Amino acid sequence: MRQLVALGLLSAMAMLTACHPTLFGSDSRSHSDRSRYTGIGVYSTGELWPKIAADPARPDTAVKDAAAATTDDDEHVIVVVDTKTGEIRECGDYSGKCISMNPWTKAISASGQLPVPLTKHAADLQREREQNQKQVEISAKMK
Fold this sequence. Notes:
The protein has helices spanning 2-19, 122-142, and strands spanning 37-44, 76-82, 88-92, 98-101. The chain is an alpha+beta fold. Strands 1-2-3-4 form a four-stranded antiparallel β-sheet, with no helix packed on it. A hairpin with a 5-residue loop joins β3 (88-92) and β4. The longest helix is centred in the C-terminal third of the chain and has 21 residues, at 122-142.
């Protein structure tokens, strides 16, 4: 089901891009005639995306509905740039969780500022994989 939703989302983006040639190219139109948001791309979430911590300063960012998607459910991160402000925004495809950065100013919102607070870091995940591998090897030797 999630693959169908993701495929639909990607298809819609492709059709919109085909209708608006300036999204990924340039033309002679003035800056004011262009779309405000320009697509950079759609990327896999990687293993750190689901580890983005909820912002304790903003309780409204906590998921209230048990059926609502979280960053664990995201399969893709959609990245766009605001052509008027220079803000770069990364958003999960199901959760809608967004983080942003602007090389010219500070983050737009406290909950999406960089560096993003994580519940686990890449080194923690690597350590867990190594410990799990050792347990598998020990179990295999005991058999």
